[in-house]
Amino acid sequence: MKGNAGRPNGARHRVTLAAEALLDGEGEMLTRKAIELALAGDPTALRLCLDRILPPRRERPITFKLPALHSAADNAGQPLHCST
Q: Which residues contact 81 (CB under 8 A, 6 or more apart)?
């Protein structure tokens, strides 16, 4: 075994397993309550919802036009025209 001889990949800590057992089957209700609190103006619940339930979109396509290139010299001084 190379490197770290600790817990194997994918293994969870006993505290994590205990918390999962306590919350088993309650995820939907807790999520709904967090959303209700956020909609009522609770800043902590709002942050939780925005950070965890609705994470930032990272894979938004960006389109831009490229000039026809036949050699590296063809691109010297050409600006890119981007549109999102």
A: 64, 65
Residue ranges per domain, the chain?
A: 14-83
The distance of Cα 49 from the centroid of its chain, to the nearest Å, equals: 13
- The structure's pTM equals 0.45
Task: Assign 82 to helix, strand or coil.
Answer: strand
Rounded to the nearest 10 degrees, how much is the dihedral formed by the CA atoms of 45, 50, 51, 52?
80
Confidence band, pLDDT 50/70/90 cuts, at residue 19: confident
Q: Tell me 75's DSSP state.
A: G
The number of residues in the chain equals: 84
Quick count: other Cβ atoms within 10 Å of Cβ 35?
16
Three-state SS across 5-44? CCCCCCCCCHHHHHHHHHHCCCHHHHHHHHHHHHHCCCHH
